[in-house]
Amino acid sequence: MRRALLVLVLAIAAIGVFAAGLATLLDTPGPPRGASRGERLFYGLCVTCHGTDGRGSWRAALFLIRPGNLADGARLGARSDQYLFEIIKHGGAPIGRPGMPAFGAALSDDELRELVAYVRSLSRAR
Ligand code: HEC
Predict the structure, then answer these.
(1) Most exposed residue of 3, 18, 92, 95, measured as fewest CB within 10 angstroms of its CB?
(2) Which of 66, 79, 100 to mutate to test the pocket of ligand 1 (most atoms within 8 A of CB)?
(3) Which of 60, 57, 28, 41 is nearest to 119 (CA)?
(4) What tens digit of pLDDT does each residue of 24-73 get?
(5) pTM of this prediction?
(6) Residue nearest ligand 1's atom 5 by CA
(7) Do 1 and 56 share a structural domain?
C-alpha cells in the first residue's frame, strides 16, 4: 500500500518535471527590458512564426509555414509602409497570401504603425 502511494507520487512528480521542461523548451522568449511597444507586440504576437530576428522560426518550419524573411533589407526595402500596415491589419488573404493572419481586430491603428516601425528595424543593421 505504502509502496503504491510512493510510486504514484513519483509518477506525478516525473510528469510535472517533464511538463515544466517541455514548457520551458517550447516557450517563446520575452522581449528585452526597455523594449518599445512595437517590439513588445512583435514578441507577443509575431515571433511564433517570424522568429525573434524576423527570419522565420523553427515552429513555423515544423508546420510548413513559410513566413519569409523580415530581416531581408532588399525585400523590405521594396515594401511600402502602407503595404506592411495593410498586410498586418488585414492579413495576407486579401492579396492571395493566406499564410499571414490578420491582426486588425486585435490591434489599434497606432499599435499597427508601431509594429510596422519595428518590422522595419529588423532589416536595419544592428
Ligand atoms: C501564423 C503565423 C504568422 C504569424 C503569427 C504572423 N505572421 Fe506574418 N507572415 C506569415 C506568413 C506565412 C507570411 C508570408 C505570406 C506569404 O508570403 O504568402 C507572413 C508575411 C508577413 C509580412 C509580409 C512580408 C513581405 O515581404 O511581404 C509581414 C510584414 C508580416 N508577416 C508581419 C507580421 C507581424 C507584424 C506579425 C505580428 C503582429 C505577424 N506577421 C504574425 C505568418 C505569420
Answers:
(1) 3
(2) 100
(3) 41
(4) 777 778 899 999 999 999 999 999 999 999 999 888 888 888 999 999 99
(5) 0.84
(6) 46
(7) no
Nearest CA owner, ligand 1 atom 14: 67
Task: For residues 73 and 108, state if they share a domain.
Answer: yes
Closest C-alpha to ligand 1, atom 7: 100
Print the domain residue range for 15: 1-29
- Cβ(83)–Cβ(97) under 8 Å? no
CA 23–ligand 1 middle distance (angstroms): 25
Q: What is the pLDDT of residues 80-91, one digit of tens each?
A: 999 999 999 999
Residues 39, 51, single domain; the answer is: yes
Place of cell 491603428: 109
Terminal-residue alpha carbon distance, the chain: 62
